[in-house]
């Protein structure tokens, strides 16, 4: 089921970017051409002054007291100053990273008619296609997506799980289980970095919602005119991004009003703070940061993204420990399902979705409880 009636959404014709690439058009279709203010700037003008922080997960898991203390401080600084970090020695089997990468690429390389057996219908966020498109004149991203709800079980849509490649379901299950474990552990240490009990988020989240999205960015003959993925912050609590070696560098984050490219570290995973951590748990202390993806003229790029968020039926708001006279409450309490519905039924627009939760917007933004979860109810 869709979070909004499909019949009310008219998205017009959406070209498949892989098919466009095969056709080698002399010009880029107008729906992909961004306004001048949105276009990527030349790489030479990007901020290259610093790299996002690196967290050594092994020092949190089994480091001595001094190593643990130092890494917790590094983690706190990364969450507060950047909202992004790369985690090394994360414990996810490297062979599994290779397997999910290979499996995802095999899916995207299938014939178009095979992939279209699993369509992402307008207003939904599972299946193959482009998400967050709500009008016929909306600019499109130079990207093909395939997304699935993972946990809890009721958000899964079995009809959208591909039969090809043969090992797709098994690999996604294994990878998602490891990604979930990593998110749970990271949230424990993020809580500790805030001076909270390590299990506070686990108790608050209930049965956490988890989803996976695979993004494939074909080369583009005019990367200066298009975006691979529009600027946005994530509606999750944590996001885990896998961008493997050998592909082009496409992820950029907005730091001090400048776009900073994220250079992948071999075998590392990129972690970013989502809106739920910023607005709910930390009262704005830890930041969900605007980010986007750009394309390359000759190289393609594949990313695999795990989203981890509180249960739809929990009510969340700033934690009392992080609100005082010097840090007044910035966000209202709300049902997380309401925010998730608000997020997935609006196009990607930087951090505008956070306005939903700000205290000054509470009266105008109150909505009724969510009858259908954003990822769908497929019981």
TrEMBL record:
One of its GO terms (molecular function) is L-ascorbic acid binding. Keywords: Iron, Metal-binding, Oxidoreductase, Vitamin C. Residues 207-310 form the Fe2OG dioxygenase domain. This is 2-oxoglutarate (2OG) and Fe(II)-dependent oxygenase superfamily protein. InterPro entries: DIOX_N (IPR026992), IPNS-like_FE2OG_OXY (IPR044861), IPNS-like_sf (IPR027443), Oxoglu/Fe-dep_dioxygenase_dom (IPR005123), Plant_2OG-oxidoreductases (IPR050295). The keyword Transcription does not apply. Residues 359-370 have a biased composition (Polar residues). Belongs to the iron/ascorbate-dependent oxidoreductase family. Residues 358-379 are annotated as: Disordered. Pfam families: 2OG-FeII_Oxy, DIOX_N. The keyword Iron applies.
